Recover the amino acids of this structure.
């Protein structure tokens, strides 16, 4: 084993790591936003729109990410859609992620008792305020494990982007391996790289979970102690 | 200030409310009583347009609730902003409290003041604390709702609604989800509101409360208002056999306790 190949190519590997982080983060962000939009529309739309969204979800879920990516990158130009590898990768991850995130959010929305929305509506809150202030903060506690889980899975789909030449970690390290014949060292380094990313994600998830579930674990709100009587009468 | 004219409501084939005519005056306290499934909760929810009634009309201070007249004379569902606007002077208290568990007691009361009324944080906080004081829970301001008893939660729910200074408050079985010993504190707050002149419509099984606080009691059965009038007239001298039977069931149950007066719940 000769791990000096890694130090020799440190700057390439570093930039590959950053590209992975970027495509992952971007893909998750796009997926979460699109998923949330889909879930919210599903809540309120008529049967026609719901049917279309249902089809979209079923089709994306039933086809492999690699095939979707090829279709987008190689098939796109014949539909007048020419994307750079990076953009195609981000869009692809976003589309692929959106359907899973949408399903997670949909479960979350249905888990909040309807009466809470009615109470908010009777106080004059708008549909958007109800979603943002009443439903999402609560369902976050319930769906965070599922969100973190799928975010990790999506991170492990990013190596697929190497096939359309996005210079991310797998692309760089397999390249270095092929060049220097240090296959084992580079593959081990890959494992460590993805492990670090997944670990980061799970730590972030734990922190969010603690924060979001304060109302279940604490007796009183501890964000700020009640100031000594600002006159309550 | 709240009026229903010929209102009907169907769930599929089943008619739950039939030709309801009802007019509630300022400062009037009206209790809706009746057996389970008689439509009393549906009636109350229709008055708030939480259920969309099918025929007839509901007016809140002269404004049609839930529908607008289209140019061709047909009526169409109001846009959400219009609905909120007509409901602006209406508060509602639910059987299940429906507090938001992720917000502290104080934040529950402040939320609509901040986001609907657009109040500044300090002002909202002062008003929320003052309203909590009124229901006797200012010292619980920083607690999470889940840590309170049912009776306390319902009082917070009343404060949340009250802080928006509604002109009329609707109560949907506000004590039905409570342990018997917690019922009194909620009824006490409601009685206080009634004495201060709040217009109230209350769906309840608490006959004692209806007898002492209501100006008028409505007895519903199978989607009809069978009988209405001042509580004492209605309770002492029911005209319809259905109401007599309904009251009979209550009296029979309560007579079990007559031998032991300490067991008899005091509503005030």
């Amino acid at each position: 084993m000769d791990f000096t190949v890694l130090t020799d190519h440190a700057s390439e590997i570093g930039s590959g790591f950053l590209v992975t982080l970027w495509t992952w983060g971007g893909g998750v962000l796009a997926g979460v936003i699109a998923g949330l939009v889909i879930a919210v529309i599903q809540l309120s739309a008529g049967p026609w729109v719901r049917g279309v969204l249902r089809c979209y979800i079923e089709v994306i879920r039933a086809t492999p990410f690699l095939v979707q990516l090829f279709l987008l990158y190689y098939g796109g130009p014949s539909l007048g859609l020419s994307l750079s590898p990076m953009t195609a990768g981000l869009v692809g991850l976003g589309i692929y992620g959106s359907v899973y995130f949408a399903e997670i959010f949909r479960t979350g929305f249905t888990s909040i008792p309807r009466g809470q929305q009615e109470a908010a509506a009777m106080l004059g809150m708008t549909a958007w305020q109800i979603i943002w202030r009443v439903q999402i903060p609560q369902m976050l506690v319930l769906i965070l494990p599922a969100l973190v889980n799928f975010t990790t899975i999506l991170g492990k789909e990013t190596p697929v982007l190497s096939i359309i030449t996005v210079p991310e970690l797998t692309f760089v390290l397999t390249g270095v391996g092929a060049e220097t014949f240090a296959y084992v060292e580079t593959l081990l380094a890959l494992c460590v790289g993805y492990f670090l990313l997944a670990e980061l994600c799970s730590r972030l998830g734990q922190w969010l979970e603690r924060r979001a579930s304060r109302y279940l674990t604490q007796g009183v709100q501890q964000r700020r102690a009640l100031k000594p009587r600002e006159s309550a009468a | 200030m709240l009026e229903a004219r010929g209102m009907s409501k169907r769930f599929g084939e089943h008619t739950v409310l039939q030709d309801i005519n009802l007019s509630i005056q300022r400062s009037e306290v009206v209790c809706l009583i009746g057996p389970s499934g008689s439509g009393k909760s549906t009636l109350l929810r229709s008055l708030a347009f939480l259920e969309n009634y099918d025929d007839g009309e509901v007016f809140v201070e002269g404004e049609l609730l839930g529908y607008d007249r289209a140019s061709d004379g047909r009526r169409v569902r109001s846009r959400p902003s219009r609905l909120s606007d007509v409901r602006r002077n209406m508060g509602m208290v639910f059987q299940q409290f429906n507090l938001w568990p992720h917000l502290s007691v104080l934040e529950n009361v402040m939320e609509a003041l901040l986001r609907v009324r657009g109040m500044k944080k300090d002002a909202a906080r002062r008003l929320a604390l003052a309203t909590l004081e009124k229901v006797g829970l200012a010292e619980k301001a920083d607690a999470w709702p889940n840590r309170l008893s049912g009776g306390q939660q319902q009082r917070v729910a009343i404060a949340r609604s009250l802080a928006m200074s509604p002109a009329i408050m609707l109560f949907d079985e506000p004590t039905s989800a409570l342990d018997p010993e917690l019922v009194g504190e909620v009824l006490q707050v409601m009685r206080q509101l009634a004495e201060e002149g709040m217009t109230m419509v209350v769906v309840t099984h608490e006959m004692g409360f209806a007898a002492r606080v209501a100006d008028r009691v409505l007895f519903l059965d199978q989607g009809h208002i069978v009988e209405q009038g001042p509580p004492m007239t209605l309770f002492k001298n029911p005209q319809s056999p259905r109401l007599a039977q309904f009251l009979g069931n209550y009296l029979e149950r309560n007579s079990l306790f007559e031998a032991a007066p300490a067991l008899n719940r005091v509503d005030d």
Q: What stands out?
A: The interface with chain B takes residues 113, 115-116, 118-127, 129, 133-134, 137-138, 141, 212, 215-216, 218-221, 225-226, 230-233 of chain A (CB under 8 Å). The radius of gyration of chain A is 22 Å. Residues 225-233 of chain A have pLDDT under 50 and may be disordered.
